[in-house]
Design a protein that fits this description.
By secondary structure, the chain is of the alpha/beta class. The protein has two domains: about 5-65, no CATH class; about 70-200, 3-Layer(aba) Sandwich (Rossmann fold), CATH 3.40.50.2300. The chain is built from five helices and twelve strands. It has helices at about 75-90, 100-115, 135-145, 165-175, 190-200, and strands spanning about 10-15, 20, 25-30, 30-35, 40-50, 50, 65, 70-75, 95-100, 120-125, 155-160, 175-180. Strands 3, 4, 5, 6 and 7 form a five-stranded antiparallel sheet that branches. The protein has a five-stranded parallel sheet with strand order 9-8-10-11-12, with helices on both faces. The chain has a two-stranded antiparallel sheet with strand order 1-2. Helix 1 (about 75-90) crosses helix 5 (about 190-200) and helix 2 (about 100-115) runs parallel beside helix 3 (about 135-145). It is globular.
Length: about 200
């Protein structure tokens, strides 16, 4: 929601493009995103009442506000590449964020949450190294609470195992989640196509 209080701000020079003007202010929860009307670059600041805290005190930097993207957390380089190629067939500009482990996924999501941005959807293999998919999903929901991200980021789980009570409880607890079973003995192309078909539903 655009906040009309932006008009009360002084004119500033964008450090990215040099354009001078009053930046657009969009409030998302307890954060405000100030966007340069010249180049579209933006910075997110925490808001205390109507007064934004200085970005430097939060370690935030000017960053492009990119369109929402698909995140895929998968250990196999081959499957990640195949899935990326399938997405590019529909949208040549598609650029999914690739994560090789649950830890990588949490790191990349945190970077977006800090600037009041978010993934469009997370495609998540439950059998991830370092931090597995189940724990990554639970930690992601905790991060969303910490950064006031709402609604929750949709999750698409997949694994070679059938959906059992444990997975059903995980889906119920995380909410905004669904599941695809990897076809038995399927190659990378088949798995990628099954995931892409579920995204297109």
């Amino acid at each position: 929601m655009t906040d009309s209080s932006a008009a009360e701000m002084a004119e500033v020079a964008c450090p990215a493009c040099g354009h001078r003007g009053v930046p657009e202010r969009i409030v998302r929860g307890v954060r405000a995103v100030y966007t340069c009307i010249g180049c579209g670059m933006g910075v997110a600041l925490r808001v205390e009442g109507d007064v934004p805290v200085d970005a430097a005190s939060l370690g935030l930097v000017l960053t492009p506000l990119a369109p929402p993207r698909v995140f895929i957390a998968e250990a196999s380089q081959g499957l990640r590449d195949t899935f990326t190629e399938l997405l590019a067939q529909d949208d040549p500009d598609a650029s999914p964020v690739i994560c090789a482990s649950g830890a990588d996924l949490l790191t990349e999501c945190t970077r977006l949450f800090r600037i009041s941005d978010r993934p469009q959807i997370v495609v998540l293999d439950l059998a991830l190294p370092v931090v597995d998919g189940k724990n990554a999903a639970l930690m992601l929901r905790a991060l969303e609470d910490a950064f006031d991200v709402s609604p929750p980021v949709p999750l698409l789980f997949y694994t070679a195992k059938p959906c059992d009570q444990t997975l059903e409880r995980l889906i119920s607890y995380t909410g905004e989640a669904r599941y695809v079973q990897r076809p038995e003995a399927a190659g990378q192309d088949e798995v990628a196509e099954a995931l892409k078909a579920e995204l297109d539903r």
